[in-house]
Design brief:
Layout lengths: L4 H23 L5 E3 L6 E3 H17 L4 E4 L11 E8 L1 H5 L6 E8 L2 E9 L4 E6 L4 E4 L5 E3 L12 E4 L13 H7 L5 E4 L3 H10 L4 E4 L4 H13 L3 E3 L13 E4 L3 H18 L1
Parallel strand pairs: 3-4, 10-11, 10-12
Antiparallel strand pairs: 1-2, 4-5, 5-6, 6-7, 7-8, 8-9, 12-14, 13-14
Helix pairs in contact: 1-2, 4-7, 5-6
Length: about 270
């Protein structure tokens, strides 16, 4: 299977359709909320409905390609599959905070070849094809190519991060890392959607993002966006990020900044441990 621009356009329409469904369900009071792993790990009826919408739409467009979604969570046995987070940022969505996204990535032969992140609140889409760059498409169909920022020093950097659902149960919960970076940077933001956090690094709005305890559907699309926009994505130990990694440092690609991020996280975790 080769991925062309028409595939991007089709998948964007699928993601927009899922986002429209989620908005309608919220507006009509149908996006009822339940707990998952604990009382702060939420799922809504809109998450489940949006995933089923994406599954059915992609199955019609690409019969035979498996799908691994957050809500069904059935890892595929075959190497080619879609990774789908129907609403990344469910807590934001459940509280009517418009920073949430439909996240779709396509894995072919062990590589991420297509990424689509639809910003539900802003009605715009971030997308990338492997080797073809990353772009932001507005609702008017106007689009621009993404390029990461040029910030080189930690002191001037705007960072984004997030915290795990187990944060009240374990000291290893990103608090040490946050405390390290907050006084050493321009600022650190916690916005609530890994998919959009990575998209904003690709956009150049943020200089870097780090977070742990995540899943493939959270990170895979955004990592491709960042890399296609000129940035880097590694693990906390500096290895190139791959789909099995649950932690990521995604930066604008400045060697100085990325090294400072690696050093800071390793120092914070050593102190905390």
């Amino acid at each position: 299977m080769s991925v062309e621009q028409k595939d991007v356009d089709w998948v964007i329409q699928v993601a927009r359709g899922a986002g429209d469904l989620a908005r309608r369900m919220y507006a009509s009071g149908q996006a009822t909320v339940k707990e998952k792993s604990n009382e702060i790990d939420l799922v809504t009826a809109a998450d489940v409905a949006a995933e089923e919408f994406v599954r059915e739409a992609l199955a019609r467009l690409y019969p035979g390609v498996a799908l691994w979604g957050e809500e069904s969570n059935q890892p595929p046995a075959q190497p080619d599959y879609w990774l789908v987070d129907p609403i990344d940022g469910t807590t934001n969505f459940a509280h009517n905070i418009p920073y949430c996204a439909v996240n779709i990535a396509l894995q072919l032969g062990g590589q991420t070849v297509l990424a689509v992140t639809y910003h539900i609140g802003m009605d715009c889409t971030f997308y990338a094809r492997r080797g073809a760059g990353a772009f932001q498409r507005l609702s008017t169909s106007h689009e621009r190519q993404l390029q990461t920022s040029s910030t080189a020093t930690l002191r001037k950097a705007l960072l984004i991060t997030g915290f795990p659902y187990h944060r009240s149960e374990s000291a290893d919960n990103n608090s040490a890392e946050f405390a390290y970076f907050m006084p050493r940077t321009a600022s650190v933001r916690n916005l609530g959607s890994a998919a959009l956090d990575l998209a904003h690094v690709a956009l150049g709005a943020a200089d870097a993002y780090w977070e742990g305890w995540l899943n493939p559907w959270d990170l895979t699309a955004g990592v491709l966006l960042v890399r296609e926009a000129g940035g880097w994505a590694t693990t906390y130990t500096g290895q190139e990020w791959t789909i099995g990694d649950r932690q990521v440092i995604a930066s604008n690609g400045s060697p100085e900044l990325h090294t400072a991020l690696l050093t800071g996280i390793q120092n914070a975790r050593a102190t905390n441990g």
